[in-house]
Structure formats: C-alpha cells, structure tokens
Specification:
single chain, alpha+beta, 3 domains, 7-stranded antiparallel β-sheet, 5-stranded antiparallel β-sheet, RdgC, cytoplasm, double-stranded DNA binding, DNA recombination, Recombination-associated protein RdgC
Length: 305
Amino acid sequence: MFFRNLTLFRFSPAVATDLDRLDEALAEHRLRPCGPLEMFTKGFVPPVGRGEGEPLTHTVKQCTLLTVGGEDKLLPAAVINDELQRKVQKIAEEEGRKVGGRERKRIKEDLLTELLPRAFVRNSRMSVYADKKHGWLVLDTSSRKSAENALTQIREALGSFPAVPLAPEEGPRVLMTDWLATGNLPAGLTLGDECELRDPATATGAIARCRRQDLDAEEVKEHLRNGKQVFMLGLTFDERISFVLGEDLIVRKLKFLDVVMDELGDSHEDARAELDAGFALLTLELERLLGKLEEWFGLPRPADS
C-alpha cells in the first residue's frame, strides 16, 4: 500500500468538490483487456480486489485512492524488422525483384496484424490519491511522463480536472544547496546519506553522485565550493520518513521507517481492512510531509477562479 515515489500536483477547492463524483465517473472508464489488434489499453482498476463489481475508489476521511491500470502488448521493433527483412529477402530470391517502399510498408502492416494477437501482454498499475482538503494529487511514480499520462486518464474520465504542476516560490536547487552547505535545515529535517551535485553553468557540467556517504564530509563541501549545486538530496523527516528530494520536487525512494511501520501492526481481518489501515497511515504521514514541503518551498494551492 505504501507509495515509493511521489509526483505531485495541486488543485483548487472548487476542483475538490468536483471529485465527489469520481467513483461514478471512473465506472465508464474501467480497464478492459487488450483486443487482438490493439497495442495497448488504459483504464481504472479497483484499488483492492479484482472482481468486476469492486469499487474503483477507496476513501478514508478526505483522501480518495484510485488505481490507473494499463495493458501493453510486448512486440519489440527488432522482432518485426527481422521478420520483415526475411519476407523481403524471400520475395527478392523467389521473384527476382526489389521490394519498393510502399510494398514494404504493406508487408509490415500485415506482419503487425499477424503477430499482435500472439504478443505477450504486460500489465501496469499506478496508485494515485487525491487529498481534497489540502488540494494535493499524489501519484506513486518518479516519472513525470507517466504522471502526466495518468492525469490525462483522470481528466478524460471527469471531463475536466485542472490540477497543475507545483510552482515553487523558493528555488528548490538553491534552498537545498544552502541546507547542505550550512547544515541549517528546517526543524525536523536531517540529512540522509545520498545526494547528486551538478555544475549548473554548462549543460555537460561535471556530476558528483554520493551514496552511503556522510554528507557533512569535507569532500562534499569541496564540491559545493567549486560551484556545484544540489539536484537531489537525501533527507529524513521527523525520524519517520526517509526520501530523496529532487530539484524538480519529485520525491524518490520514499521509505517509512520502523517507528511508522510498528504503528500499522499486522492483525487485520481481510484485505480491505488492511488497505484501510495502510491508507489511513500513509495519508496521515504524507499530510504532514506535504504541508512542510508547502511551507519550505512556497507551494501555493490554486485559488478558485
């Protein structure tokens, strides 16, 4: 249940009200299996259970969980090209002629029609939740492209969903560089053991990556004195959550520490009770962390238009 990465968007109070119809809207956009000649399908699947009648959302207090699903056919271009070359060569040998571009294109289309029904299918799932009280849309991915694709799915289901990327008033790179250089971090925040430093002056500037490293070490400070800035920084919040924060404000390698996991316990009656407990704990912990990100970097919630 616990998210491993956080890509974040914000939405206004008016948009939060519109999310009350989310379960009804998603019902018409359930994930369906890939057809024989389809490369992929996208849709929504139940956060818990696999039955046809299972709800597509799960709400605890002000937070609503949903799962964006997909099925993709695995048909590598190399396989198609090898088969195409074999057919073209066979025509050249048997008929003594070259295959033109138009005929080659037709042969390739015929190959797709022949091979697609036999291709393996890969399933994908992405957990997403909306905090309607505070205006956060939280996606369990570190890929901006994947997050945008999932957001598009939600928008298509709702007809409109004006969630926007984060717009920090404080430059994340500058602020995190200051944290690392001075050791003057906000209350409750401590340095982890990982960072990525880059020279921002040039597109191909030097990059220094540290893992399992004391970030107070002199060699790290020397990189900063030489003009490098922080692009990723490992942090621990209130000794309860560790993560790596990027200058794009994507939270990577999110981990809930033992003190949090001990609060979850392991005595749950069924999968739904376990989901309830896990989701409640997840959203409570992240409410505090996201509130601090909002404070540190100045991440305003959009106002109603």
